[in-house]
Amino acid sequence: MNAPQPKPWIMAIAPYVPGRSTSEGGAPVIKLSSNENPLGTSPQAVDAFAKHSADLARYPDAGAALLREAIAAHHDLDPARVIYGTGSDEVLHLIAGAYAGPGDEIIQVRYGFAVYEIATRRVGATLVIADDRDYATDVDAILAAVTERTRVVFVANPNNPTGTFTRKEEIARLHAGLPAHVMLVLDQAYAEYLAPEDDDGGLDLARTAPNVIVTRTFSKIHGLAAERIGWGYGSEDAISAMHRIRAPFCCTTAGQEAAIAALGAADFIAASREHNRKWRAWFGAEMGKLGNAGLRVVPSEANFLLVLFEGAVTAETAYKALLSRGYIVRWLPGQGLANGLRMTIGTEAETRGLAEALREIVAG
Ligand SMILES: *Cc1c(COP(=O)(O)O)cnc(C)c1O
To answer: Going by CA atoms, what residue is nearest to atom 3 of ligand 1?
Structure first.
């Protein structure tokens, strides 16, 4: 062993595979593989970003004071208990880093967000998989997986890549069933797509329970994926632990300003939610009509649909056929979903085009 050796748990990590953005031949493509906002970014956020785009020489505010205050004002939270990071991805890594290490266990659902496994293995902890219930989060399976070594439970709600949603009462039951030493992480990357009355109660729990952290992102409905800004909310102690290990300057100056402006763009947020609700329902119904060809839609509250291919045309065949027509969707065999395609709800034209392409593919 002459060369420096990475830790074995690092080499056991399968690198994250991002949604593709190019076709084989470099032809123009319609990218529906990363759950981005098809309406783009609010004009308010674009303006704020432009206004600060030449502020390059100085470090950004390491404490993100204005951003924390804007988030806190928007959600009625204590700004001192808002943590932020290079996307909520970083916040998820901070949680694993603060609470788990070799010998500890972290639980996720069978079809969970790919970053949880990376965050778990990175710190040398062991990933424990709780079985799903027909692709949805099964609270009883999670509770049954808890041991005295469990440190963190990651639950995305709505979940990615399934789109399934766990109701408030079930989230409360999950929290009530966990031992006090287990940190429950409610990843609400898609929460803004829910109708307000469908809130899962996560922020209320995080306000009072010492063992709940909620994470959110500016990458999805706010249309700021390129700027990499996410945040989390938890107890004073949890936030204090995470601050010790975060990158000192995670979020750019222009990005922080754009995020603050994005929170104020109520019309854009509402229009994005409404667009998604309308075209997700339409696309789901169109896929439902292909049921005799073995297509099955998993119920979704997010900005994408997971469609299962249980007939003669496999998900792999459909994925490749879509690619050749310029549509990039997400096929996730590495996450145990070789039988499904996750498709982001795009613009009206993209969604109609995708449905038409799938009809043709299934018809042979
Ligand atoms: C997209 C996504 C995130 C966050 O992404 P960032 O861009 O890093 O903020 C977090 N969790 C889930 C479940 C997601 O789908």
So the answer is: 189
Ligand 1 centroid, distance to 361 Cα (angstroms): 31
Helix residue ranges, H only, 162-229? 168-177, 202-208
Closest ligand 1 atom, CA of 302?
Answer: 15
How many CB atoms lie under 10 A from the CB of residue 286?
18
pLDDT digits (tens, 9 = 90+) for 155-208: 999 999 999 999 999 999 999 999 999 999 999 999 999 998 999 999 999 999
Kindly report the pTM of this predicted structure: 0.96
Q: Is 113 in the pocket of ligand 1 (CB under 6 A)?
A: yes
Nearest CA to ligand 1 atom 2: 189
Which CATH number applies to 17-40+267-363: 1.10.357.140, 3.90.1150.10, 3.30.70.1130, 3.40.50.10950? 3.90.1150.10
Cβ-Cβ contacts under 8 Å for 178 (sequence gap 6 or more): 143, 146, 153, 184, 211
